[in-house]
Design a protein that fits this description.
- The complex is a heterodimer of chains A (165) and B (783).
- Chain A contains five helices and five strands, in the order ββαβββαααα.
- By secondary structure, chain A is an alpha+beta fold.
- Chain A has a three-stranded antiparallel β-sheet with strand order 4-3-5, with helices on one face. A two-stranded antiparallel sheet of chain A has the order 1-2.
- Chain A starts with a strand and ends with a helix.
- Chain B has four domains: 229 residues, Aldehyde oxidase/xanthine dehydrogenase, molybdopterin binding domain (Aldehyde Oxidoreductase, domain 4, 2-Layer Sandwich), CATH 3.30.365.10; 147 residues, Aldehyde Oxidoreductase, domain 4; 124 residues, 2-Layer Sandwich (Aldehyde Oxidoreductase, domain 4); 218 residues, Aldehyde Oxidoreductase, domain 4 (2-Layer Sandwich).
- Chain B contains 19 helices and 27 strands.
- In chain B, strand 1 and strand 2 form a beta hairpin.
- Chain B is globular and about 80 Å long.
- The chains are: A alpha+beta (165), B alpha+beta (783).
- At the A-B interface, helix 1, helix 2, helix 3, helix 4 and helix 5 of A face helix 6, helix 7 and helix 17 of B.
Chain lengths: 165, 783
């Protein structure tokens, strides 16, 4: 066991853990988060996805010792009580069936949109291809990503206009 | 009226929480998210002491509680596996009660708090269980009107009610709310009915025309917490003193445990115990990652079985075709199929194969069991929590009053998943350890050892007369389904089998098509066959979403297309003619509704009338379209797939799916659309990807690489859904609501296969249509 410090969603957590432990178990069992979830433990499905340094990271295969930088989980996407446009789009499109995988879908989509605010259909398919859903809500997820991209674009245009004005 | 004293403690606690009349916003926040026994107050509340008596379904108070703030909480004995049935229940009950949807809350599936409606299964939530829900809500409305009548000294008939407020029609200044009449008090009204489905008061239901909330699409109440991370799932249960367990499965199917070297793990951090009985082995540790590590390191010795447990997946269909059936159903014979085939102008014969396919939930099976206070509480996402309670009590030989199952959300509940098995394992381990135990299967365990949908082989012959009319059909199906496990059976769950329990094996079933095509000479026959190993096998069969439906419809509706092609007829017209040839309809008008959905699908697609295949095009991408039709219970569907087949890679992309769907009265149209999309794509995954592979010792499909599933790359560009509701009497007051959870699963495999044939002229008679298989077939046919 070793003493470590983790920054998660803006808060610092001092922990005493075996640093070979995958980040997922620390987030869930020590910090008490519920967004990232165990799906395979193999980095194949994406249910455990968190964002570190702008990248979608599969926390189930990431030893906590290798984590450098602030961790954002699903719980950290909303700002000031307002849902992230992707979360809102997920509600507007009524995306989930069981919903268990949707953490990975939303977090992966966030990284996708952060890097490419207006992805084509093909880019969405490629960017999301390794994030699995066994209720097969892919069609709605893709619609929600497009909806969120539109919302974000509109919002950024509005704020630019404000600056100009 | 009496006070709350006789309401179950957990219901009273829920009342307490909701009756703190706060802002509407906080009510909405709690609406639907309250999981009794594991709510905002957390673990302390989870220790509700037993014994756990059964809520009495003949008491109105077991179903509906009206609060002083004029809101209502509904208690139902169902579980929502993600199709939005909870939202639909609230709509139906709010409508009958005459209260605004957003002033209601719903609690479901926990055995000590909600009446036993069996949990989920069979797409019966709306079709069957919705009726007692509507009737009890209507009865509550009637009682409230009676109370208001007494208060105002006005006959109930002269009162109006809207959104929980009762008004004297002749004097609108006289009003009273439901909350003022009965908030926080018992109805004390006894209901009647010989079984829970028959539960009723004396109130009449509203007619279809009077329903206002039914038919609307309020958003699902459960979704916000699923996208902001605030929902507590069954995987999230944490209890004081809780420990973690992981199973160690036999490395070879049918192996016998001969010894465990506990010293291999004894010194590991957090190690508590190796629990072993028969061939069941689990390791228990303080922390989750410790249990995972210890389960991997444990040295256990196993003796391989003397005979191979099963043929390899490559040899499966050959094995099944030569196996002696363990049971056969009496053939369903109409006319004289042999004579008709002998005299037919054209005879077509085809064999189809469908491999074992798994549930392979996105999260492996899990449950947490708490043995505190001499009781046993199991936190589970199992869709049949009531069955788990009874099964666990029987399995552990403890009174069922000591057991409760608290249902919480989890990954998909599409049939008899390993969630059943994990619940029993957690219960057993909690009793052994004496502390709360959380168990979760590994991905490898889940994919290899979850129950499977049975593999099928089919042999079908059909005969056309000189005019291209289908005059004979001889259908024969075989399913590898012997010893099919049921739900939460104390003597068939995996841990019981591993303990050595041996019940009389269940016979299993194959299936036959039941579409209402008028075929004058017909034989439908089916058999069940067995693999060599029937106990403790990873190839145990159990219900998988629309059990047997996709397999049977793949064969029967592909064959219908083969007959249409042989007759050089358009596949839509060929089917419509066979349906229209019948002069009788059934009580649910399924013949008329079948015709309606096929026409609606063809119209929505823009179907051009011609026979299949179309002339094979030049170029690398070949396109085609295919239709398939079926029904499940009373819900009738037709689906059309449009495919692109890559000639050089064999890759199939289903670019567009159209579904015309008639499930009677639709409670929530947007909810039904999402459910249909999910059902079609679930079957698309079975059409394109899913196959359980095994060698002669073990299942080798163990993760998402060795057991591929549909991905984002496979999603159709367009999905069009037409909610037909083609009841011939759309305005009749009793237009029933049928189930929508599974019917759309059925025709997809055949629709895709038929579209591939249309595009390429190559008939694929075995799923999944993986690239390699398709390419090989194209090359053989020189396409």
């Amino acid at each position: 066991m070793s003493k470590i410090s983790l920054r998660v969603n803006g808060a610092t957590h001092a922990l005493d853990v075996d640093t070979a432990t995958p980040l997922l178990y620390i987030l869930r069992n020590d910090i008490g988060l519920q967004g990232p979830r165990f799906g395979c433990g193999l980095g194949q499905c994406g249910a455990c996805t968190v964002i570190i340094n702008g990248a979608a990271i599969r926390s189930c295969i990431t030893p906590v010792s290798t984590v450098k930088g602030e961790i954002t989980t699903l719980e950290g996407l909303a700002k000031g009580g307002t849902l992230h446009p992707l979360q809102q789009a997920w509600i507007d499109e009524q995306v989930p069936q069981c919903g268990f995988c949707q953490n990975g879908q939303i977090m992966t989509a966030k990284v996708l949109l952060d890097k490419n605010p207006n992805p084509t259909d093909a880019q969405i398919r490629e960017g999301m291809a390794r994030t699995l859903c066994r209720c097969m809500t892919y069609y709605r997820i893709q619609a929600a990503i497009k909806r969120a991209a539109k919302t974000k674009t509109a919002a950024s245009q509005a704020s630019e206009q404000e600056v100009v004005a | 009226m009496t006070a709350l004293a006789n309401i179950p403690k957990q219901v009273a606690e829920a009342l307490d929480q909701l009756d703190v009349t706060t802002s509407r916003r906080s009510f909405l926040k709690s609406a639907g998210l309250l999981v009794v026994g594991f709510s905002a107050t957390g673990a302390a509340n989870a220790q509700a002491a037993g014994p756990y008596t059964d809520p009495n379904y003949r008491q109105l108070d077991s179903w509906i509680v009206i609060h002083q703030d004029n809101t209502a909480t509904f208690y139902v004995g169902k579980t929502d596996c993600g199709q939005g049935t909870g939202t639909a229940f609230r709509q139906m009950m709010s409508d009958e009660l005459d209260i605004a949807y957003d002033k209601t809350n719903l609690i479901m599936g926990s055995t000590d708090v909600t009446v036993d409606q069996g949990g989920s299964g069979g797409s019966d939530a709306i079709q069957t269980d919705g009726w007692p829900m509507r009737r009890v809500a209507a009865e509550a409305r009637r009682v409230l009107l009676e109370l208001a009548a007494q208060r105002f000294g006005t006959p109930a008939g002269q009162l109006a009610v809207s959104q929980g407020v009762i008004t004297v029609k002749a004097d609108p200044s006289k009003t009273v709310t439901y909350g003022e009449l009965i908030g926080g008090k018992r109805f004390n009204v006894t209901l009647t009915g010989n079984n829970i489905n028959a539960t009723t008061g004396v109130a009449k239901l509203k007619t279809v025309q009077e329903l206002k909330i039914v038919g609307q699409s309020p958003q699902r109440y459960d979704i916000p917490a699923k996208v902001d991370g605030s929902l507590k799932w069954a995987v999230d249960v944490k209890l004081p003193g809780m420990v973690h367990a992981r199973n160690v499965k036999p490395p070879v199917a049918g192996a016998q445990l001969t010894g465990i070297d506990e010293s291999s793990v004894r010194g590991m951090p957090g190690f508590i115990k190796v629990v072993s009985k028969g061939n069941y082995v689990a390791v228990v540790c303080e922390r989750e990652e410790q249990a995972i590590a210890a389960s991997r390191q444990l040295k256990a010795n196993w003796r391989k079985p003397a005979a191979a447990p099963f043929p390899s997946s490559e040899d499966l269909f050959k094995y099944m075709r030569s196996a002696t059936p363990t049971s056969s159903t009496a053939p369903n014979v109409v006319g004289n199929p042999d004579a008709a085939l002998a005299g037919a102008a054209k005879v077509v014969e085809a064999e189809y194969d469908v491999p074992f396919q798994g549930h392979t939930a996105i999260a492996p099976a899990h449950a947490t069991a708490d043995p505190s206070n001499g009781q046993l509480t199991i936190y589970s996402n199992d869709m049949k929590s009531y069955g788990m309670r009874n099964g666990v009590a029987e399995f552990l030989k403890i009174p069922r009053e000591q057991v409760r199952v608290v249902w919480m959300e989890g990954p998909q509940g599409y049939g008899r998943t390993a969630a059943d098995d994990a619940g029993f394992e957690a219960a057993f381990l909690a009793k052994e350890i004496g502390r709360p135990v959380r168990v979760q299967w590994s991905r490898h365990e889940e994919t290899a050892w979850d129950t499977k949908g049975p593999a099928f082989t089919f042999k079908i012959r059909g005969g056309l007369d000189g005019q291209g009319k289908l005059i004979a059909l001889d259908y024969n199906a075989q399913a590898a389904d012997y010893n099919h496990v049921g739900y939460n059976e104390a003597d068939s769950v995996l841990i019981a089998q591993l303990f050595g329990t041996r019940r009389t094996p269940a016979r299993g079933s194959a299936g036959a098509p039941d579409e209402l095509y008028e075929i004058p000479n017909r034989r439908l026959a089916s058999q069940v066959v067995s693999l060599p190993l029937i106990w403790e096998t990873p190839l145990r069969t159990g219900n998988l979403r629309d059990p047997n439906g996709p397999q049977v419809a793949f064969a029967s509706e592909s064959f219908m297309d083969e007959m249409a092609a042989a007759a050089k007829a358009d596949p839509v017209e060929f089917r419509l003619k066979l349906l229209a040839a019948g002069t009788m309809d059934d009580a649910g008008f399924r013949r008329a509704r079948s015709i309606a959905v096929i026409k609606a699908a063809a119209q929505a697609y823009g179907w051009d009338t011609r026979s299949s295949p179309k002339p094979v095009a030049t170029g690398n991408i070949l396109t085609g379209r295919g239709i398939a039709h079926s029904f499940r219970s009373q819900t009738v569907v037709a689906e059309i797939a449009e495919v692109e087949v890559n000639r050089t890679t064999g890759h199939v992309w289903v670019k567009r799916l159209v579904c015309a769907h008639d499930c009677g009265l639709v409670i929530n149209p947007e909810g039904v659309r999402r459910t249909i999309e999910g059902a079609m794509l679930h079957s698309l995954s079975r059409a394109l990807h899913e196959e359980v592979m095994f060698d002669t010792e073990k299942v080798t499909s163990i993760d998402w690489n060795s057991h591929p599933s549909l991905t984002h790359a496979d999603a159709p560009a367009t999905i069009d859904i037409v909610l037909v509701n083609g009841d011939p009497h759309p305005n009749r007051p009793d237009l029933p609501h049928y189930g929508a959870g599974e019917a759309a699963c059925k025709p997809t495999l055949a629709a895709v296969g038929n579209a591939i044939y249309d595009a390429t002229g190559v008939r694929l008679r075995r799923v999944p249509f993986r690239d390699k298989r398709v390419l090989a077939a194209l090359q053989t046919a020189r396409v």
